[in-house]
């Protein structure tokens, strides 16, 4: 197990490097000069002097390998560069906002698992029955509704019409834990709706598949009690693909919370990212993309390790 | 494609088609100008001229919803198509040339998958600025790798197909062959991929437009409409309704289409309901009937099994009777489809849910001396017997062991299901059992996972679990078939040895291997298409068969010890098309008109022998 963990970690480190390099290359090798692009908003040809100045400011006039070296060197020191607009260090802003985004994702994942897993198991054990059919249709629809539609409707109904909660925002946990959680609930539930549907579907099909396996029949032939068969033989094996799919979706959410944070005014990474994209503030966009992608890679590493923990065969692969 | 498939596809296809048609026809419809601003009429509710009302700039909502569909659909379909063509080409190239080309195409496309999708789209928007064109570029980049993967895998698979290899050997241009072979194969998965891509491209497009980073105002788009309506939702909440409904409805329809396509094109995903567990948890059969003439151990009387319900039910097993005495080994032989395995499963009450007992009795006399009918025993009572008094070993030991639990624990599980023991004590006994079935270094092997053992060792472990509680009857269903020949012999030896030690244990050995039968069994039952055709002591039945089928089986055994019962002319008739009269008649050299007129009965010949052939005296 340890050897496997080490091997996977090395691969993940390599991927982190690949991601960092890709981010660097995207900005430096795409056709067109970023400085020129940045200044050419509004359809006017930019002033060459201004472009040259910006190039120097961005360090774009240095040879590529030198730029790459200082970029990687900066990363190793946790330096993600500075905003073009206000010189604010990108790393600092990310450090402030990232935990809020992660909290939102974690809360959504928790809700999704709490609802999706038991309901998926139930539907599989009663496959074809009325409960299964109703749940499957419900899941199909929940998966299809875009998250910002759900969010907007949630705000309309619960905040505007019923006035149960305020329309969104954020209160630090340290200031008022209850209000913090109350404000977390709406965006988390919005994300969780679609995610729970994914967990539900995956759990259902995975359990159905495992139920047909020979070792389940063998366990029955041993006279093992039904509940123990479900818990001990079925769920653990069925969980393996569920974990993978859930993690994949969580990774997608790292970028996908943008919409929900926007709808609910949740001050995570997204507001920052959307503003940066609108202003074409390269260092900010690069920094956020890099951090999230690295998290994405690390998440996949965590999944691989969890996978190995659940399935002893993987450790030797 | 079956009609049922067409039905499944019809509804989502019609909905998606309708939406596409409506969007395509937008310029022809008598719609208001979607970008015409009329500030004085802002937020007016539905009226005669504006069926769905007017938005925050007084623009016509109906017109914007239909024109908005154009934008969403155009972006999604174009992006999906570009991604599909580019990705498929990359995958084909990578799979065909391998090596460096593979790295340049498939592997580098996969680098895209290192980034969360929405984030990558935002990155592209940063570089190119918002707009429909940017969206198409971003979404194409995003989705091309998935196509590349599918095409790559199919190309690799096609490369190894026999006829591709053969044609290449004949000097044909392999590129063209590959294209001809691969494209039809990749078409179905790519079609599914395409509809998936359209649906998720639409979600992303509307999301980006909603953020103000997609379609540029004043062009209509559903995402933009929701964005606009959101800002005025306290005054005019109904404006949210239409774009939300349109967007969600379209995506639901697209997803339904994906599901239907996947089911139709990939029938593997369809086998959902056939799991024995449902019968297991819900199956409470009627109460026990009084049993006449109790057997010493087990007697199956006139057992009938049917697959399915109603008039379409297939007679899988008909009128099967057999008996096992304590300490006796009964072999049940027959080709696949003879019903031998189902008969074994019926004894333990482990039939798949589609198979029902439609007649007969399975009388079993237990340790406490009472006789029960296993065919009518309730599930809780059956469960107490299974693994304790009645045990079963299945064909494939690798599939019979749960891959995520240690071998020793799986043996201990049988003990703890029936005996009130501490975990440590059960584990100690499991090690002793593994030692008894000849697993070297049992204490260490008990802690191993199934994949760490060889096939033979796994079957030993499965047998250890089966005999853990000293069962009175052990049913072994082809326990050596999945193993190679030398291991087969060892397992047979083990089973014979265990039976000798256990004294009174009865053994039912289900197999198609006659050599194994003569080695291990006292008596044999020969089955053919769900019926017993001959029964008797092994030496006599094989020495002088009294049924043409048995005779043919015996004659087909080659000199070696690996026989496959394949040399009998003709084929086993399918259950839905059984011949009238004697079921063996179409393959029987002795068949006469009387044989097909009426089904022969099982005739007792004395000396424990019986046969289901009217001309048994003439069987050489
Ligand atoms: S009954 Fe007739 S057809 Fe059937 S096995 Fe005997 S001889 Fe052949």
From TrEMBL, chain A:
PROSITE patterns: ABC_TM1
Superkingdom of the organism of origin: Bacteria
GO biological process, one term: transmembrane transport
SUPFAM superfamilies from the UniProt entry: MetI-like (SSF161098)
Pfam families: BPD_transp_1, BPD_transp_1_N
CDD domains: TM_PBP2 (cd06261)
Main subcellular localisation: membrane
Gene Ontology terms: cellular component: plasma membrane
Keyword Transmembrane helix attached: yes
Entry-linked InterPro entries: BPD_transp_1_N, MetI-like, MetI-like_sf
Bilayer-crossing regions: 12-30, 104-125, 137-160, 180-200, 238-265, 285-310
Subcellular locations according to the entry: Cell membrane
Name the UniProt record assigns to this protein: Peptide ABC transporter
Originating species: Thalassobaculum fulvum
From TrEMBL, chain B:
Family classification: Belongs to the ABC transporter superfamily.
Entry keyword set: ATP-binding, Cell membrane, Membrane, Nucleotide-binding, Transmembrane, Transmembrane helix, Transport
Pfam families: ABC_tran, BPD_transp_1, oligo_HPY
InterPro entries in alphabetical order: AAA+_ATPase, ABC_Ni/Peptide_Import, ABC_transporter-like_ATP-bd, ABC_transporter-like_CS, MetI-like, MetI-like_sf, Oligopep_ABC_C, P-loop_NTPase
A GO BP entry: peptide transport
Annotated GO CC locations: plasma membrane
TM helices/strands, residue ranges: 73-97, 118-144, 190-216, 237-257
Annotated Gene3D superfamilies: MetI-like, P-loop containing nucleotide triphosphate hydrolases
Protein name: Peptide ABC transporter permease
Location of the protein in the cell: Cell inner membrane; Cell membrane
Membrane topology summary: Peripheral membrane protein; Multi-pass membrane protein
Keyword Nucleotidyltransferase: no
MF GO annotations: ATP binding; ATP hydrolysis activity
Domain ABC transmembrane type-1 per the UniProt entry, residue ranges: 69-258
Main location class: membrane
Superkingdom of this protein's organism: Bacteria
Organism of provenance: Thalassobaculum fulvum
Annotated ABC transporter domain residues: 298-554
């Amino acid at each position: 197990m340890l050897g496997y963990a080490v091997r996977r970690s090395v691969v993940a480190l390599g991927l982190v490097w690949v991601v960092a390099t890709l981010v660097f290359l995207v900005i430096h090798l795409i056709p067109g000069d970023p400085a020129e692009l940045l200044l050419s908003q509004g359809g006017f040809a930019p002033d060459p002097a201004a472009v040259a100045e910006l190039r120097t400011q961005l360090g774009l006039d240095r040879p590529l390998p030198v730029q790459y070296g200082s970029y990687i060197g900066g990363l190793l020191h946790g330096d993600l560069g500075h905003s073009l607009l206000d010189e604010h260090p990108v790393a600092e802003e990310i450090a402030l906002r990232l935990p809020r985004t992660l909290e939102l994702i974690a809360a959504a994942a928790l809700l999704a698992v709490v609802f999706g897993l038991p309901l998926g198991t139930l539907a599989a054990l009663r496959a074809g029955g009325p409960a299964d059919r109703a749940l499957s249709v419900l899941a199909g629809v929940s998966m299809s509704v875009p998250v910002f539609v759900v969010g907007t409707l949630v705000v309309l109904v619960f905040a505007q019409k019923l006035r149960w909660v305020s329309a969104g925002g954020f209160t630090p946990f340290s200031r008022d834990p209850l209000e913090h959680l109350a404000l977390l609930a709406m965006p988390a539930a919005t994300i969780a709706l679609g995610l729970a549907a994914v967990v539900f579907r995956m759990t259902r099909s995975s359990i159905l598949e495992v139920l047909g396996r020979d070792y389940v029949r063998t366990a029955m032939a041993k006279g093992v009690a039904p509940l123990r068969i479900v818990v001990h033989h079925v769920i653990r094996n069925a969980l393996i693909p569920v974990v993978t799919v859930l993690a994949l979706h969580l990774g997608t959410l790292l970028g996908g919370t943008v919409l929900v944070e926007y709808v609910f005014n949740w001050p995570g990474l997204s507001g920052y990212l959307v503003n940066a994209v609108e202003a074409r503030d390269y260092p900010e966009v690069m920094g956020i993309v890099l951090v999230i992608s690295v998290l994405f890679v690390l998440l996949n590493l965590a999944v691989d390790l969890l996978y190995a923990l659940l399935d002893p065969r993987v450790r030797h692969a | 494609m079956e009609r049922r498939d067409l039905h499944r596809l019809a509804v989502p296809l019609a909905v998606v088609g309708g939406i596409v048609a409506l969007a395509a026809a937008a310029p022809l419809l008598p719609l208001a100008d979607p970008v015409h601003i009329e500030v004085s009429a802002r937020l007016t509710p539905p009226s005669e001229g504006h069926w769905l009302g007017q938005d925050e700039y007084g623009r016509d909502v109906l017109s914007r919803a239909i024109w908005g569909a154009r934008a969403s659909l155009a972006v999604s379909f174009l992006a999906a198509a570009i991604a599909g063509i580019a990705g498929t080409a990359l995958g084909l190239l990578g799979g065909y040339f391998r090596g460096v080309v593979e790295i340049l195409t498939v592997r580098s496309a996969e680098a895209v998958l290192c980034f969360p999708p929405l984030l990558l789209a935002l990155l592209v928007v940063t570089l190119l600025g918002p707009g429909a064109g940017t969206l198409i570029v971003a979404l194409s980049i995003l989705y091309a790798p998935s196509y590349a993967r599918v095409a790559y895998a199919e190309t690799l698979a096609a490369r190894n197909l026999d006829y591709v290899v053969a044609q290449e050997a004949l000097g044909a241009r392999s590129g063209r062959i590959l294209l001809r072979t691969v494209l039809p194969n990749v078409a179905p998965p790519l079609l599914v991929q395409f509809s998936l891509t359209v649906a998720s491209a639409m979600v992303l497009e509307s999301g980006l437009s909603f953020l103000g980073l997609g379609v540029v105002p004043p062009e209509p788009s559903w995402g933009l409409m929701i964005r606009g309506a959101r800002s005025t939702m306290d005054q005019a909440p109904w404006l949210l309704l239409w774009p939300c409904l349109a967007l969600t409805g379209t995506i639901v329809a697209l997803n339904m289409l994906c599901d239907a396509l996947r089911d139709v094109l990939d029938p593997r995903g369809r086998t959902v309901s056939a799991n024995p567990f449902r019968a297991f948890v819900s199956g409470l059969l009627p109460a026990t009937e009084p049993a006449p003439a109790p057997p010493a151990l087990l007697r199956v009387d006139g057992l009938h099994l049917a697959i399915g319900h109603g008039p379409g039910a297939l007679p899988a097993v008909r009128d099967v009777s057999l008996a096992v005495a304590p300490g006796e080994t009964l072999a049940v032989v027959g080709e696949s489809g003879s019903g031998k395995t189902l008969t074994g499963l019926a004894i333990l009450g482990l039939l798949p849910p589609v198979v029902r007992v439609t007649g007969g009795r399975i009388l079993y006399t237990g340790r406490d001396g009472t006789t029960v009918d296993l065919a009518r025993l309730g599930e809780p009572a059956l469960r107490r017997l299974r693994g304790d008094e009645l045990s079963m070993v299945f064909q494939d030991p690798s599939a019979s062991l749960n891959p995520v639990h240690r071998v020793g624990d799986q043996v201990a599980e049988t003990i703890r299901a029936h005996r009130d023991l501490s975990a440590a004590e059960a584990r100690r006994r499991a090690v002793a059992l593994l030692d008894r079935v000849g697993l070297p270094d049992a204490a260490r092997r008990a802690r191993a996972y199934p994949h760490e053992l060889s096939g033979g060792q796994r079957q030993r472990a499965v047998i250890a679990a089966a005999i853990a509680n000293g069962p009175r009857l052990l049913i072994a269903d082809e326990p050596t078939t999945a193993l190679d020949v030398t291991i087969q012999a060892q397992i047979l030896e083990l089973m014979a040895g265990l039976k000798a030690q256990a004294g009174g244990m009865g053994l039912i050995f289900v197999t198609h291997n006659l050599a194994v039968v003569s080695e291990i069994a006292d008596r044999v039952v020969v089955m053919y298409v769900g019926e017993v055709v001959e029964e008797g002591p092994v030496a006599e039945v094989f020495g002088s068969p009294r049924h043409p089928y048995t005779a043919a089986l015996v004659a087909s055994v080659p000199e070696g010890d690996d026989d496959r019962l394949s040399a009998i002319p003709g084929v086993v008739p399918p259950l839905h098309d059984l011949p009238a009269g004697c079921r063996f008649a179409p393959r029987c050299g002795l068949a006469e008109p009387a044989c097909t007129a009426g089904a022969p009965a099982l005739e007792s010949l004395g000396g424990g022998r019986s046969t289901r052939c009217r001309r048994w005296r003439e069987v050489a």
